[in-house]
Amino acid sequence: TLPGLLDEMAERFGARDFAIDETRRLSYSEFRAEARRLAKGFHRLGVRRGDKVAFLMGNQIEWLLVDFAITLLGGVLVAVNTWWRSAELHHALESTDSSVLVMVDRYLNNDYTGALRELGDLSECLPLLKHIVVAGEDRLPGAIGFAELYSLGEAVPEHVIDAAQREVRPEDTAYLLFTSGSTA
After folding, report:
1. C-alpha 33: how far from its chain's center?
2. In terms of pTM, does the model score above 0.90?
């Protein structure tokens, strides 16, 4: 499983660089520890085995952290295309029954918070979407800041995360990916 692989790599290559982006550099051990802290926050939000968590973010370390945190819990990561606008976002969130959306407020020229505002009352048009986690300043009412996930998870004991990870199986669905035929 992906969480098992991360455990093995952190044990074998702990101090070596695992992920680097424009602002951060994390070793295997640091990355594993942060992914587990993030998993605790998602667990506190109610993410469990089989739950769908939609993800709307460009390439950055947080993308990987969310990926490993969700798969550690046995959740399913729904990768949402960063080019999509309101209608496509609605379709992806509705058709996958996503209960959590993790997103940046803006990426390149895209205003995702604005796109979600265009949908109107999200509790009506996306009733299964219970939480929105936003990295950025522009948040919808009730949205949780990305950094807040870490403090939310502080009350979750390590053994709870260990137990969730033990339930993950290689045959479990880890991702729901949308594809397109735009290039024929």
Report:
1. 16
2. yes
